[in-house]
Amino acid sequence: MTASPTVLSALADGVLTLTLNRPDKLNSFNEDMHLAFREGIQRAHDDPAVRAVLLTGAGRGFCAGQDLGDRDPRKGGPAPDLGRTLETFYNPTLRLIRSLEKPVVCAVNGVAAGAGANIAFACDIVLAAKSAKFIQAFARIGLVPDAGGTWSLARTLGEPRAKALALTAEPLMAEKAADWGLIWKAVEDADLMTEAEALARSLAAGPTLGLGLTKRLIQQAATNSLDQQLDAERDCQQQAGRSADYAEGVTAFLEKRPARFSGK
């Protein structure tokens, strides 16, 4: 295992596990953690040995969003440019997560607040401990949801629930988040990492070229017309049908044996 002070990174069985590692600060982001996290997601893009990503947090929380400790208005000075923070740190990383054509599993092990919640929602499959909760904490400090929060909440939950969560900052417990379709499932706290790791390994061993194309198609569907989506499915299926993974999958089916996918 290699480590930066703020993000732990380990690659095994094709799964790159990234662990946000500022447990004393509930894994809230500072500049170093932003850069280390983005480096990990960029590695997933660049390294063919990485076939899936598992994101989680160290300690009792997943991520409390941005560390506000260095932005104490009582210290005086000019008002912070939070738009620059988004443009420099959060937005590029969120785009990397969404554009990564490999599965990204998120294991939310505790509170996910502010941008921490919205980073989780940007991942492909989210599992959460039953004790975990999601909080759009921005309203408590006079800010707007960021890190893609207004986009993911509105598309997943619809306008009424998205507005209620954002305007009230009311915590949403993991089981209700699963019932609402905001995450994949809530599991017993003690089982979270075992289940998340097994899922990530299973995805990494799968036909990752096809999985990546599937991720692309589902993300495009929100803005495509039916005609555009049918054309996109045709093009992606053409690519998948020419892949070594498809040939291996069909061969394994006919030979009644487990497939050995290469992601090519």
UniProtKB/TrEMBL annotation:
Q: Does the keyword Isomerase apply?
A: yes
Q: Does the keyword Isomerase apply?
A: yes
Report the sequence similarity comment from the record: Belongs to the enoyl-CoA hydratase/isomerase family.
Q: What is this protein called?
A: 2-(1,2-epoxy-1,2-dihydrophenyl)acetyl-CoA isomerase
UniProt gene name: paaB1
Q: Mind telling me which PANTHER family this protein's record contains?
A: EG:BACN32G11.4 PROTEIN (PTHR43459:SF1), ENOYL-COA HYDRATASE (PTHR43459)
Entry's Pfam families?
ECH_1 (PF00378)
Which keywords does UniProt give here? Isomerase
Native source species: Paracoccus acridae
Please give the InterPro entries that the UniProt record associates with this protein.
ClpP/crotonase-like_dom_sf, Enoyl-CoA_hydra/iso, Enoyl-CoA_hydra_C, PaaB1
Q: Which GO terms describe its molecular function?
A: isomerase activity
Q: Which domain of life is it from?
A: Bacteria
